[in-house]
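User: I'm writing a tutorial on reading structure tokens. Could you give me a worked example: one chain, its sequence, then its tokens, then a sentence or two explaining what the tokens reveal?
Assistant: Sure. Here is the example chain.
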Amino acid sequence: MASELLKIKGIGPVTSEKLGKLGIFTPEELIAYTPVDYIDLDAESDLKIAENGDFVVAVLFIEYAAKPVRRGKLQLFRARGVAADGSKLKLTWYNANYVSKIVHVGAGVRVYGKLKKENGVPELINPTAEVAVEQKGRGIKPIYRLKGLIGQSVFREAVRDAIEKGYTLKSLVPEAADDMPLSEAVRTAHLPNTVAAGKKAKERIELESVIKDIVAYRLVVGKRRRELFYGENTAVIDPVIDSLPYKLTVSQKAALDGILSGLSGFDALNAMLVGDVGSGKTIVALLTAYYAVKCGYQVALMAPTEILATQHFRTFSKILLPFGVKVALLTAGLPAKEKREIASAVAAGETDILIGTHALISGSVNFKNLSLAIIDEQHRFGVAERTALIAKSGSEDTLTLSATPIPRSLRLTVFGDVEVLNIERRYVGNVTTEVVVKAGKKAMLNAIAEECLRGRQAYVVAPRIRDIEGIESSSADRLYKELSKLYAGKLTVGLLHGKMKAAEKQAVLDGFYSGKISVIVSTTVIEVGIDVPNATIMAVFDADRFGLAALHQLRGRIGRNGDKGYCYLYTEKDAEEQIRLKVMTEETDGLEIAERDLQIRGAGEWLGEEQSGKGGAMLPVRMMIRAKELADKVDPEAHKEELTAYALAKQLYKISLS
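And here are its predicted structure tokens:
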């Protein structure tokens, strides 16, 4: 395969080896490697808002140029230029002898490359430099994610040569090519006339890539067969439903029916229950767990925090104890003796439902007859934790609960057998979200005070517990001291974080539940598991340090009974970060936020354990669903040899659908 690559201009043994690290071993894989972005060399970038890692184009007046000097085997050349708007840019080249002839004091130079910012100082290292007046009409250049292994220009020329030599991609599904044949998409994506055309062609190639992944995965993996069977009629859960002080909503009933139907099939259940905070996911999970227990099995429910695990334990115990179900709580904070007693009861089959945190996946916990693993708020767990819990189950029946599915999970709903069940929101649009910058901090804190003086309660969230030297960010400790002083004599402020002792945390929570504490300053420990209907206002400090999924969860703590709520996302970052946060002001639906998050930060490396990044083709969720629809029309057996080799090369059999 590599020998074919060596036929491409500019690719020798060394470059071929580097391409291999990018997963490129054939000319076809080379042209299937789509750009991450495009840059118009005739359009200057706004250096004042450009961020670290951006590709920029700048026309500069050179105000300083040093003489080239040698540093060991390297020749170093430094300069500094000023753009028309006054922005200054440091320029550094290594072993670029031609540059000093172009870049000299008083020269007008067009440069483009990847921006590096350290301590706010913008710099380009080894940018392409050209005499400004000669460079109009250079057109659109694709930008590739090359991990520093290969230069952009080398990669571009290799792709161009591969296309000129006639290498192209074959479409599995002709219907997908209605708007743009794949061969045309290949040329346009890599050699575009406009940015818009390039992006459309890139999306077409990525659509084909996802289709191929889906079909190949199905060919080599298939579905997991059930090993444990549920023999009871689903009507056994009716007494519990009748005992509830409220009626299930239509969407709750539909979701429950879908889960129970999955448990009755021959294939293992792999379902994701999606519903915004307060929509009623917990009761659906409880009824599912009760059904499994009535069928003679054990159930494990893993939550990310002790607060949420304890909340579930109380809910499950209150509802299910009258029906003879034995529920236990296992967390890392319990005394060793109590942990051993709980583990012993679980191993003996004396515990029906075990609820806990990461402690559930410890080696000391062994179930006698576990059939169902329930994982709550799964965006807080890594792949390893989820897999470890599922491994304790004989049949691998899995139910995950999420208000905002992480992008990786959205990807897996397309690739495999993850069934997505939605519960509709009870309250829509009752929380107003606003991005606040430094100038608006005082007004924000005044708004919190005014709301609380009217009898409401507030959350103030910080990204860390304490200040760390050298890192500029708000800490819970510092905010607690600041607000205690600011609100002294008016409001009672409490502090809550994960490093506090269990008794201390409970005392603060009890004060907040009772209304004695008006403002609670915390870390994301309050993200899930706290239900205070009287809380209607929240301020998240350094909101730029949180993912959109986490922000959506945090926002779900306020306005839980339908009252008007206010969520402030405070940031001192630049305009680009404010644009990301603005998603939260525009979207209230968890799935929509997950899609925007997918577009911003990627779906994660779905072959591995990384939860973010740009591994694999990136498509909007709706296009991924379109890819699944098209993949359903492909007969894997008709392409068996090609797809089997492809699946083995990409190790698709290692994908975890959990």
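What the tokens reveal: The longest strand covers residues 55-65. The first helix runs from residue 2 to 5.
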